[in-house]
Amino acid sequence: METSNLTARQYWEQVKANPNRAKFGFGARPAIVNIDVQRAYTDLGAFKTAYETDPRQIEHINALSAQVRALGLPVVWTYVAYLESGEDAGTWGTRTNTPDSLQNIKHGSERAQFDPRADVQPGDIVMHKRMASPFFETNLWSLLTFHKIDTLIITGGSTSGCIRACVIDSLSRGYRSIVPEECVADKHEIPHFANLSDIMLKYGDVESVDHVAAQLQALRA
């Protein structure tokens, strides 16, 4: 194993500045999946589980979603929530049992609500999920197949959890996976930057939001 004295942030900057693998790139039919842009993870004033990396994250997510929507392609918003019993969280819900615990994000609760800044439109697809990846036991894959999607833009949180899980499942199903850097967030910078590095080196393309916006604009030309 190679050793290093770099911080995760420094390592990410090094990886980003010196990409050593070809990019997957954009295809012709992108969809966007905005993962768990809900108050449990975005409302810093209300919930200890919330976090923020880029203060304009949701603004950027809304802008990219509007571009995908204008192409007539799927805009998907996921949220996580559980039964009153919490049993549908399975083993994942057995580690702790506090008001902040995962399985205590209940259907209809404030923690399950989308952030009011998120521009969820009537024609968008709202999808409930229970595990990290939005592909797990949902109809996401069949939906993307129906729309002949070849590229998945993945936003939301957390970078080290649901974003990473989605990227790996996306790649495993044959999609080009694009992560706009300003559109993902995590609780701490170490897992955030470490996982951005891992995603770029292995599973997908990590791009600036401006680059992703330009690629979407080119599809309208």
TrEMBL record:
Pfam families: Isochorismatase. Residues 31-208 form the Isochorismatase-like domain. The keyword Hydrolase applies. One of its GO terms (molecular function) is hydrolase activity. The keyword Hydrolase applies. Gene3D superfamilies: Isochorismatase-like (3.40.50.850). Keywords: Hydrolase. This is Isochorismatase.
